[in-house]
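Project standup — Tuesday

K.O.: blocked on the structure for the chain from last sprint. Re-posting the sequence here as requested.
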Amino acid sequence: MRVPPAPARRTVLVGALAVALLTGTSGAHAEPRPDPTRTGSLVLIGGALKENNTQVYGEIIKRAGGPEARIGVITAASVPESQDPHAGDPDRCSNSACNGAYYADVFKRHGAADAQWIPLDIDHVADADSDAVVAQVESMTGFFFGGGDQYRYVTTFLRGDGRKDSKVLAAIRAKLARGAVVAGSSAGAQIASGPHMVTGGESYEGLRDGSAPGYFDDPTRLGHLPHGGFGFLRSGLVDTHTGAYGREGRALRLASDTGHDRVYGLEENTALVVDRPGSDREHLTVLGPNGVAVLDLRDARAHDSANGWALRRARYSHLTDGDRYDARTWTPRVASGKRPLTPTGTTPVPANTDVFHSTANPDGTPYSFLTTARALAATRAQDSATATTFETGPRFTVTFTKAPGFAAFTDDATTPRTLVDLRIDIAPQR
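H.V.: unblocked you, prediction finished:
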């Protein structure tokens, strides 16, 4: 399958104080082969990538050379065959080898000329310095990192206290610099992070207890690796499954604790496409049915009190299909076809007592953080709304405010799709 180049499109540039129409392009590359004169690109997916998502798979293949694309599939975040009790059952297996075969088949069905599993996992760490595997990598035009546990990628591809690249990672990094595409889903997107890559944790426990360096057996404890992942994307922290698991809270706490002023929160089955990563021309495009949260902490202030941790003046944008984002200028550019929304509703924002979709609440509602934000955007009855955590001791209240600079956009005249610069405040209550 050959995905045609995206047409030029008008964009809406959203600044702090104004909305203006500009002319631009979608950011997609039209050339059929990777261009060795430019840096490559990233396609980072928030997890749960459906095999029928032709939009995202097609984008990866197009950037890898279209009908000549050769995709190297890397699934070292999965358990190895030795740890999979169903390794011998092709219908039940879930290990690095069978997951690699699955993705290779999907890429071929979507039109790649070839897709091959790169045979690396935590049982074959030494092979990441194999000249034969390096040669396999050199023959590829693009790469896809699958999901699982991102720490297994660290273990497989990085060496020693100095975190030196293995030969295979060095080869992939060089291919990216020469124009290849590097894609990843879930853990495969997380590993693209620079310093303080998240290793796990839930939003409530993160807000209550803060973050700590390390990797913890307790899945609720908010952890991070100070040296980070592979560092393909350094303009912000990366989190995945953001809406489905309510991870906005943990993302804000981790960023505040570690001194980062931006987080990209990737939702499931949706990609953040990064052109010229690491350069002063880095720009990002959202691709898929859901969205990407951009959490802006430049003006945010955190403080501790007897009641608990609080954060003031964070900003939240939710970008959807076709929207672009200029990392250098912090500027969203809303896709054509979406127009500024004038709220006409008068219904108050419904109360929400599980803003981060707590795992402790069997009746929790997915996407509750975004649901509250969009309900506020749709009504003219109020300029702020609150939602709370399901847990108490303390219970955290999240306040959403249409502060100056806020804008919402719609593609059907009534439903908010894209949100820009909604103010977020988090406060504890005993």
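K.O.: great, moving the ticket to review. Residues 40-289 form a domain with the Rossmann fold fold (CATH 3.40.50.880). The first strand starts at residue 9 and ends at 14.
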